[in-house]
Structures are given as C-alpha cells and as structure tokens.
Amino acid sequence: MNEILPPCPECSSAYTYEMGTLLICPECGHEWSPAAAEPVSGEDSVIRDSVGNVLADGDTVTVVKTLKVKGNPSGIKAGTKVRNIRLIEGGGVDGHDIDCKIDGFGAMQLKSSVVRKA
Question: I want to staple 67 with a disulfide (CB 3.0 to 4.6 A). Which of 76, 82, 87, 90 is the partner?
Fold first, then answer.
C-alpha cells in the first residue's frame, strides 16, 4: 500500500485508514468521504458566518446569540451590530477568527459561528 491518505479533518491525526469508500480516523472516530474532503482543502481561507454567507474584511455582522464576556456582568446581547470586522487568517486563538471593536466592550475576537452578515 503505497498510497498516502489525508489526515483527519477533525483532529489532524495522520493515522487514517480506508474502509470501503470511507476514510476513518482511529483516534477520534470521524468518518468522511475522500471526495468530500478534496474541495474543502482549496477553500481553507474562506470564512463563513453561522448561516453560510462568506465574510470579508470590513463587513458588518450581527451577533446571533447572547455571549458571556469575562469581567462584564451583562455580556454581548443577541442582535448587537458589529461594524468593520477584520478576519484572522489561520483560525485565531481557540477558533476565534474575527477581530473587531464592539461599542461598550472594546476590542475583542469573535467566532464566525456566532455572527450573521448584516
């Protein structure tokens, strides 16, 4: 077997193996189709919001759920508009891929999964 299999898209494990038409990761148990994994590799730099819209630098987004903020009793409420976002290449810290300033909170980072393009 001289074929090199791609690493797991979930945990990046190099120990994937083939079973029928699926690839399987023995470390996390993730199963995926090798055909489905190929298009994703070309779109690594695309960041999408919670409903699948492509985000770009300078966009205005709306927070879709109330977020707790350490050191602030009220947090960021759902529906808060955030203007002029900057996208962080490479995923940022703990999946936070949006850098922004929020009125009343200051500079912070958000995950794209909690915002919707306005």
Answer: 76
Is a pLDDT exceeding 50 seen at residue 16? yes
Give 62: exposed, middle or buried? Use CB within 10 Å, 0-12, 13-18, 19+: middle
Token pair 């109330």 in the structure block, residue: 66
Task: Calculate ∠ Cα 35-39-42, nearest 5°.
Answer: 145
The pLDDT tens digits for 28-44 are 888 888 776 554 444 45
What's the predicted TM-score (pTM) here? 0.60
Indicate the DSSP class of residue 84. Answer: S
Which of 67, 76, 97 is CA-nearest to residue 85? 97
User: Quick one: which of 29, 87, 96 has its CA closest to 59?
Assistant: 87
Please tell me the distance from the alpha carbon of residue 98 to that of residue 91, in angstroms, as a whole number.
9
> Would you call 21 helix, strand, or coil by DSSP?
coil
